[in-house]
Amino acid sequence: MDSLYQFAWLIPTLPLLGAMVLGIGLISYGKLTTQLRSLSAIFIVSLIGASMVLSFGLLWSQIQGHEAFTLYIDWASAGDFHLAMGYTIDHLAALMLVIVTTVAFLVMIYTDGYMAHDPGYVRFYAYLSLFSSSMLGLVISPNLVQVYVFWELVGMCSYLLIGFWYDRKAAADACQKAFVANRVGDFGLLLGILALYWATGSFEFNVVGERLHELVELGSLSGALAGFFAILVFLGPVAKSAQFPLHVWLPDAMEGPTPISALIHAATMVAAGVFLLARMFPMFEALPTATDIVAWTGAFTAFMGASIAITQNDIKKGLAYSTMSQLGYMVMAMGAGAYGAGLFHLMTHAYFKAMLFLCSGSVIHGMEEVVGHNPVYAQDMRLMGGLRKYMPVTAFTFLVGTLAICGIPPFAGFWSKDEILGSTFQTSPALWAVGFITAGITAFYMFRMYFMTFEGEFRGKDETVKQQLKTEQLQGMGLAFGPGAMNPKELTADYPAEDEAHDDHDHHHSDEPHESPISMTLPLMVLAIPSVLVGLVGTPFGNYFEAFIHPPGEVVEAVTGLGISPEFEWGEFLTMAGSSVGIGLIGITLAVLMYLRKQIDPAAIAERIQPLYQLSLNKWYIDDIYEVAFIKGSRRLAKQVLEVDIRIVDGLVNLAGFVTLVTGEGLKYLENGRAQFYALIVFGAVLGLVLVSGIT
Amino acid sequence: MNLATFPWLTTVILLPIAASLLVPFIPDKDGKTVRWYALIVGLIDFAILIYAFYTQYDPSLSGMQLVESYTWLPMLDLRWSVGADGLSMPLILLTSFITTLATLASWPVTLKPRLFYFLLLAMYGGQIAVFAVQDMLLFFLVWELELLPVYLLLSIWGGKKRLYAATKFILYTAGGSLFILLAALAMAFYGDTVSFDMQTLMAKDFPIKFQLFAYAGFLIAYAVKLPIFPLHTWLPDAHGEATAPVHMLLAGILLKMGGYALIRMNVEMLPDAHVYFAPILVILGVVNIIYAALTSFAQRNLKRKIAYSSISHMGFVLIGIASYTNLGLSGAVLQMVSHGLIGASLFFLVGATYDRTHTLILDEMGGVGRKMPKIFAMFTTCSLASLALPGMSGFIAELMVFVGFATSPAYDLTFKVIMVSLAAVGVILTPIYLLSMLREIFYGPENKELVEHEVLVDAEPREVFIIASLVIPIIGIGLYPKLLTQLYDAKTTQVTEKLQASFELANVETLPATEAAEVSLLPTEPLQAPAISHL
After folding, report:
1. What pLDDT digit, counting tens, does each position of A407-454 carry?
2. Is residue A655 part of a domain?
3. How close B126 comes to chain A (CA, Å)?
4. Global pTM?
5. Is residue A388, in this structure, part of any structural domain at all?
6. What's the ipTM?
7. Of A222, A225, A368, A227, whose CA–CA distance to A286 is shortest?
8. How far is A686 from chain B (nearest CA, A)?
């Protein structure tokens, strides 16, 4: 089996190779490469397929009990400083490899259908492959610096993919916002890494944790300082995993094509934050202040995301806030010390959320046939409805995903969410309460989404709704967001140009949407399987998952057979599970009454709780606050600095030059020969300098 | 011919200069022969350099190699003395590489091609000479001679305000270099022997006050060149007016002269004064990073934007030089080479974009990505390299400077925390202005006026080739930094040892209490001695 480990570096390298081949092809033989669509797609998909097979091999070998494998090469050195890069394959890495490769593989198959009419088809595959490579590199990183390297690289891929349709203004703003927000987090992460290195002299996860403990215990480092370092590191996951207050980029990131929303902004990259928290778990474990902050950030984000998701009408934005909320659960679990539970939810969420996003893509694909290639119409749930009739596979898989995320047994989400809630209850009932309420809201908004999209009458031809959307859109554009100057011309020039941009697409508008092609529905059906079943590996009465994934240094006894582990208590389990299923059912019932049976009018409720409704609809006004505080502020500051530079700094130096010139003119009349005079001054000055220093 | 004693560096310096003298005799009607001539000379020179580097240069040694020394003017003790060590070799290679590419980038120059290529070739040799000469007087001479071609290249082929920019450039740099002469003369005449030889000067033992004066003199000159706030204002003007190939030289090589000379003279010859000046350098470095990043963000002119970004990046060089660690110094050298490549590529792309849009004002651009996908892709790649994306050379350079400074034994904790945090703000600011720039040029709906009035053709193979030549080493160094660091590791180790010795000396013996407080140079024990991770 060892040869498998020797070649594990191929897992990230193969997709990188694919991306490079396509990239070089595009830049040197652009026209030809763009035409070789199916060849490029097959090439890329088979490379990630090979990575997937390798990953499964490694996971299997790890399950069989192979010890962790690490390989280093000396990467950078200066004198006695050496920085090594390499890879490490342990339980966590093997699991993450399998999650990433499977989702990436399926998303790439799906892409063939979704992007079929896009002129950037090949470029999209190149980006996808580059992303997969970076993400795989991230999960096998053996030390903090390498994590930081790939952390930034996945951010770059995310930037490129969000801005994939670069002629859309919204996409252009969103990709920049994503990168900058992530850089703010990276700023903290970088400082954290530097601080930890300063304190412990190491970049390695376990060594950093151990030495930090020693230092705190010895008293040579104050606990507060260590906690502060941990918070700095935590800023990285805050940005990457879209936690408050750096979550603002994730909903906007939905401007990218849907396959990447599924792959990057639901299943893999956004989970990298949770992954890093898991890797740094030995450090966080013993810093209670830091873990409290982590847990409460997660809990707050979970609640906030869910509360915003209730009022979203854009199907992808709704799912984005839901992702944010679910990531909040994972971060909360990590903060509450529920290592296994957090990662378990990461796994189940990766599958069911990727599926939900791909379903939304399938819906959008179908809607585009009716309303045209305008994201404002094609993604708005007010124009959908009754799609189950036209798209049975999509509707069925979306329902599976919805049930999974709502935590209905035996779907995957039930087991993982229940485990998180159960473990947080033991550490802090207050945290549990937030998670518990959020679970109810989650069930409500997910079923609202399902009913608005798939049940009732199809509203795609409703002109009044369209008109309303158009007005909303024009109003919203005044609030466009993103650093950089707003050019008023963009407002008027934007949308006509955008329609043109997609003129090269097929024009057969039909009256009703159709089910997507098999290349899109097949991945949905495949993803439905883990969405239902994968939770069974981590049931409380036979937790194979936790036996496999547990914090380093913690001993967990192996699960033997299907026997119920000794400390398992039915009573406790039934109360916890019962209550969380209960609140889920309440949410679902409300959704049924409001959106399926229409017995309660949502608009009336919105009227009655107007402030709360507005708070949710306007995303807690956080974008607006940032716009004023940071974006306008930084722009103003930059302008002022430039003014200072031009007027004062440059002016002073120019003035000095002017004075010299004037005096020079004066001197000209005093002196006959300039050159001699200068030489004299130089000589005098040198003499003076030598004399002065010689005497003293 | 004995290969070991063949005057390699002299050949490399004099070949382009001699070739430039032949330019007037080249039969050339439409200006197309002379550009091939210049390119071939550049390539030959580059090839000779590479050959000499591979066969005659041993990177594991810290001392001078390829040394040649001929008496020139005995009564002035002026010697033609050249040599290369780990500090100058990477920069000499960079110079030859960038200048050759700049020749290729000058293809579209149609105004007075003979004069243009004459100046370009003259610069080729002159620039290498700056990094290679080992005699202070000679150094001053080539430093000055270097200005002349730049002045002409700016004032004849520049933009609208070219005369103002060129004059400002020459006044600033010439004014600054007066201080080099002053300090050099003082150092040469100090003591019993009169010598301009750098190695001899390095061995001389100057008293601390003398060192401080000389250090300040050098610092002013190199602060103009690098540039360091507040002596940077010539740079946006000069860079804003220069044409693309000149631009590549200015950003790719000329700025590096400042950093190189700072290490060669201030650090190596005046290590005792460096103890006092280092904290100032760190502060100036941080000011450079933040101040220039903000001005770059507010700039609406593309060339000036990139020009300010160069200033910002040079801040890391300063911090690295002042870090007192091998890692930091190594990062500073790496940052110089890396910025040489990245800056040159960005400025070339700005030129290529300007050739098509005929405007540098960002508000007049927009949405050109669809018409010029290749330029878009290359611009994105180089911008990402400039914002220190991992996998490219800028990242590892900045990381080394950060880690080097953070682990520096020379500063107390508070100072380090404040400076590292402020410098890291640059990590946030850089993507803001670079990505805004990309967005305003390429993203969004097409700018109707621009599309109608200008012919927006995509990059031609020559342009792709130039960028590929620059990006390959950027990524190569980024993926495996040892490629470059091993060239100079021995040298930086030696310099750092010397520095740390004089730092300890300064702290043990003479530092008066008041001054110690003033410069906040209290040594602190790191929590654990940096017995740096045996990974």
Report:
1. 888 888 888 888 888 888 888 888 889 988 999 999 989 998 898 888
2. yes
3. 24
4. 0.87
5. no
6. 0.85
7. A227
8. 5
